Amino acid sequence: MAEVEVHREAALQRADDFENPGLPPHRKRQTDLHPEKEKRAERVVFGWFLLSALGSIIAVAAYVAVPITPGDLTTTRFNNLFLGLGIALAMLAIGIGAVHWSKQLMSDEEHVELRHSTKGSEKTRAKAVEVFTLGDKESGFTRRSLIRNSLIGALAFAPLPAVVLFRDLAPADQVPTDVFAHTMWEAGTRLCLDPTGTPIRASDVSYGSAFHVMPEGIDEAEHPLDEKALAAVLVMRLPADQLNEAPDRAGWSYDGIVAYSKICTHVGCPVALYEQQTHHLLCPCHQSTFDVKNHCKVIFGPANRPLPQLPIAVDSEGYLIAQRDFTEPIGPSYFERLHDVDEDEHILVAGTTEDRA
Ligand code: FES
After folding, report:
1. CA of 265 to the centre of ligand 1 (A)
2. pTM reported for the whole predicted model
3. Which listed site, 47, 127, 171, 279, has its alpha carbon 20 to 30 Å from 329?
């Protein structure tokens, strides 16, 4: 016991390992010393804010002057480009102006603020309890249970209009899940390069490359952008000995060439990165990683189901074609809970069965 006390004593007397160096001597800025430099800094900040306003005007003008023509990707690209440049300029200039303002013109005094306990004093706490108790008494929240419970009920129902409004964003004649269950792929549709639309021969697909692919004729669809958002596919070729094909998917690939939906099963970003040594696909949004060797199963990240596979073959001219549409809804897994595909490849939609074949 005595020995322990000796040690405790020694610990109390031990010197600090580091000495607090304190703050360096304060140096005044040029703008503090020379009024003409202060004026110049003011004009610079003004210039940045003016530039920001100009960026916002450019964005609005570009949005009006370069409208999107439905089905025309060029106008969409230019619209997005100028809109993005205008907004980027506006945000960047505001940020730079604010930083410049704070560094050159705002007060340069250095303060030391000691950290105190965040807990209030007993008096403050007692006062807070008193205020709450008084509020409860005056409002009758506890006493008037009928009003209280009906208020809770009203609050529970309050989000309902938002649910109905969001539900109405989907086409009126379809449940939302239908939108993701069918794409433009069907038996015999050629796989074409995106965005040129050039059909792909099996011999064009070399090891290590990844092709961004759309169905042939997608630009002539009624809503090509909507169709592209559903039908986007990635095509890769793997050495046959590295491809682990499940028995129920035998014949879905061609000579090591496989095709998978490009729409991430997490929340629907385009899966755009292919690691050719490991044959992994990576979604840049939240880093979900899919193993192409094993049916694009998820090996990392928040996605919780593999990317849907598109069964492919070649036609008599050697071009890659689809054997059929996807056998499951593409995109976020949320839709998988409402849709299911049974062994006979019927899709079960909200309790009804519809044939997809
Ligand atoms: S959308 Fe792909 S990981 Fe989140």
Report:
1. 7
2. 0.53
3. 279
